From TrEMBL:
It comes from Ooceraea biroi. GO terms for cellular component: cytoplasm. It comes from the Eukaryota. Gene3D superfamilies: 3.30.70.330. PROSITE patterns: RRM. InterPro entries: HnRNP_R/Q_splicing_fac, Nucleotide-bd_a/b_plait_sf, RBD_domain_sf, RRM_dom. This is APOBEC1 complementation factor. The keyword Glycoprotein does not apply. It is found in: Cytoplasm.
Amino acid sequence: MTRGELQRGKGAEIFLGRLPRDCYEDELMPMLEQVGRLLELRLMLDFSGSTRGYAFALFADPRVARKACARLDGYEIRPGHRIGVVKSMDNCRLFFGGVPKTKTKSEFLAELTKILDGITDIYLYPSAHDRSLNRGFIFVEFKDHRAAAMARRKLIPGRVMLWDHEIAVDWADPEPGDPIDEDVMETVTALFVRNLALDISQQKVREIFHRHTNVPILKLKKINHFAFIHYENRESAATVMDIMQKPNSIIEKEGWEIRWAKPIGASKILERQRYIREAVAKSDEQGIETPRPKRGQRKKHCVLHKSPVKVQEDDNNVSLAQMRVLQNFVREKYDAVCDFDCVPISDMSKYVGRIIIRKYQTILLEVQGEPMASKHEAMSAASVNVYQYLMNTLPNSAQPFEQHYIHPTAGVNPVIGAPIAWYPEIAQN
């Protein structure tokens, strides 16, 4: 069911799951319209006329969609029946494999627009050995998810032939990493550029961007075929993005791809932390097994304490990030604040984190975490413990893949923790 002329904004669609099989538009639309302007509701039906238990709803803009997820996820649509609401994947890109390697972007665009509607761009990657050839696959971007789905449906049933080549077509894999909130993305000041030649230097990329945009670059890092370019503020980065996306820009001529860089999520920080720890442990083992120097040879001293310092700094960053996530979550959901404390136990060899959630002068929750080897690990474990407890026990709380996203550190069980006391009747006031 649609209303008026549709302007489908990316990120404005939500997925509704766990719906009753006899739940239809007359029950769903009033619920959805309480959140904001509803443009479209797609309810999936089976051959008997019953619903399949899920639907898609399109709102006027992504902000309303985020609001709908926060308000309706876990909503009790009928007595004892709660529904699940999350952001729709909104995939607008298809993968075409087995394409002729001699064809160019303009040739693909001309050929595919003859049979498919809604194509907005084609991403083609040149071969690392011969840039006059592509790598044998392309990505085709469509104006919205529906256009991509219709194209896939048209191409899937039989064999797809392009220039006498049989082509494989499927959804492009979503980009890895944590989902990033649109509000966060609007503050990003760095650009991500890929499809660069392997032999082009970092300094050369810097010179090209500065020459074509005349915008000072704060920092640039090139890794293999891609680069991250940081600017002083959002306005400067947006200016560069606008210039580089114009027709006949250096980006288009070189076949590069440019987009906003994604901030590192909590899971990526923890993954880095794990890699650093493994590297330090390996270095320590190698340090123990290092053979003694030969007589007359000057002994080289290795300062092994520098790596653990780096790990300690990384631990600190992770624990602070987790404490900040918990604080924001508690403030938004319960209009309360968190008090954090870390105290040594026994012979000062271990620490425990203590967290108190209070609303004005009333204590809502008191938690004491498990003993940990460092203060940062203790606060990290306690923060994860409290966050997971609130998520798993309280109704209508955000899901892990929503706005507040947090991962437990290695070796920490967020379910097992020491005494937890929660007073829900106070929190709801």
